[in-house]
Structure prediction request, 170 residues.
Amino acid sequence: MSTTPETENKGPHAVRDRDELAAARLQLLAAARYKLAIHLPSLPADAFNTPTELAELRRIATSGRNAEVRIVLGDADAALRAGHRLIELAQRLPSAIQIRIPASEDDGGPVNTAFWLLNDTYGYLFLPDASRLEGRAALEDGPGQAPLLLDFEQIWERATPASQLQPLGL
Prediction:
């Protein structure tokens, strides 16, 4: 099966199942140059855990002085207990991969259950509810990405570092 039609369509398109979600995630990682912004209410075992996805994340994190992978993770303790490979990668590259947890004042309001992945080439993957595999993605859509990036920046500024994920320097 050829992926040519998917890569030619860089505008917004629907994502409706696990395979489309994984393909969009990988395309966005491959298209990124130096920066990623990821919002995860929880870290599913099948997200950012394949060797290809981890290789892309490592490539982005080691791409140069401007490299920056910022992750807001709602349930960092569960990801740590599960031994997720993304957490291991973040522990090996702490200067480039930063993980924060939502601020406590965010806990008083409605829980943000959305998932989004934003790259520095105006690509995005957005699921309004991370537990449902329905959303939209685009490889290049600046106007579609802008409100998501603004929301992410606001959440990131209020979030606190996930100190429980920092490696112990024994």
